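Listing S7. Sequence submitted for prediction.
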Amino acid sequence: MGLSAQSREQVDELVDRAAVAGGESLGPGIASGPLYMRGFRDLDGHQWSFLHLSS
């Protein structure tokens, strides 16, 4: 599942908060042109991604 964020900083903040709450970060953020993405796995094993597309 991918969800949008308002900024790259918000992407990192949301994934870091998920990890503190018991989730598993899936590594550092990935930047590809205007797209920045970072993901985590929740306690049930579902994978989530937060994305920011700069204009």
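Caption to Listing S7: primary sequence and predicted structure tokens for the chain studied. DSSP finds one helix and five strands in the chain. The radius of gyration is 11 Å.
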